[in-house]
Amino acid sequence: MKKFSLLLIVLCLVPLIGCGKETEVEEELEEQEIDLETLKDLAYYEYLNYDNPVITIKVKNLGEMKAQLFPNVAPNTVNNYITYILDESFKNSQFHRVIKDFMIQGGIVKQTRKAIPGEFRKNNFDNPLNHTRGVLSMARTATSYNSQTSQFFIMHVNYPFLDGDYASFGGLISGFDVLDAIANMKTNFNDQPLEAVMIESITVNLKNYEVKEVIYA
């Protein structure tokens, strides 16, 4: 029961691919020297698409994580997240909460915008993307489904308890070693890493995606 309560606190704020598209995705991943066989084992492989925006999270001294964002799953969440990226809001922020065998959380920025509605089942939004290893999702307050701003987390392992409760919106395509390195760091009693995990930058390749105006709560 104690662990159950802790996990609730941690997450609070402080289309199937057609054959042609699948081939394009595979070619692109191979060009980026991304292990396609590893990705095929991931639960969200079916959501990967050549046209999805690709983000690069550069972590100081540890390397990079790349992820695809899934506008078809959570469009407003994706637009909101990209807006923070384009404003360079995540530059020199941190992964401030880390729990091994659960998730790593970051995204505290100097200035947040208005909150957005949560795109997940308990908030009457059909979001089929489950919280499996590598999935990106949005943190929120414990008391409001419509309180997502800039904080996000990346799943270290599968955790179905979160499905339908949080707005998942993307998935890693590389950098799982970086994810594991962060998740295995020593932390204090607040799950804060003893050594700061700095996000030097998050950038986005929009590909063919057109960012829409964010809808706020």
Structure, described:
This is Peptidyl-prolyl cis-trans isomerase. There is one protein chain. The protein has 217 residues and is α+β, with helices and mostly antiparallel strands. The protein has a single domain, classed as Cyclophilin (Beta Barrel). Helix content is 22%, strand content 22%. The protein contains five helices and eight strands. It has an eight-stranded antiparallel beta barrel. β3 and β4 form a beta hairpin. The longest helix has 13 residues, at 19-31. Residues 1-10 have low confidence and may be disordered.
Protein topology:
Blueprint: H1 2-10, H2 19-31, H3 36-40, E1 54-59, E2 63-69, H4 75-86, E3 93-99, E4 103-106, E5 135-138, E6 152-155, E7 168-174, H5 176-183, E8 198-205
Domain PPIase cyclophilin-type: 55-204
InterPro entries: Cyclophilin-like_dom_sf, Cyclophilin-type_PPIase_CS, Cyclophilin-type_PPIase_dom, Cyclophilin_A-like
Protein name: Peptidyl-prolyl cis-trans isomerase
Number of distinct helices: 5
- Count of discrete domains: 1
Provide the spatial order of strands within the biggest beta sheet: 1-2-7-5-6-4-3-8
Q: Tell me, what's the shape? A: globular
Q: Which spans of ≥5 residues are poorly predicted at pLDDT below 50?
A: 1-10
Kindly estimate the percentage of residues that lie in beta strands according to DSSP. 15-25%
CATH architecture: Beta Barrel
Write the element-wise H/E pattern from the N-terminal end onward.
Answer: HHHEEHEEEEEHE
**Number of E-state strands:** 8
Calculate the terminal CA-CA distance, rounded to whole Å.
Answer: 32 Å
Helix content bin:
10-25%
Largest sheet: 8 strands, antiparallel, barrel
**What does the radius of gyration come to?**
16 Å
- How would you classify the helix and strand content by structural class? alpha+beta
Q: Mean of residue pLDDT? A: 90
CATH topology: Cyclophilin
What do we call the CATH homologous superfamily?
Answer: Cyclophilin-like
Look at the structure and give the CATH class.
Mainly Beta
Keywords: Isomerase, Rotamase, Signal
Family: Belongs to the cyclophilin-type PPIase family.
EC number: 5.2.1.8
Catalytic activity: [protein]-peptidylproline (omega=180) = [protein]-peptidylproline (omega=0)
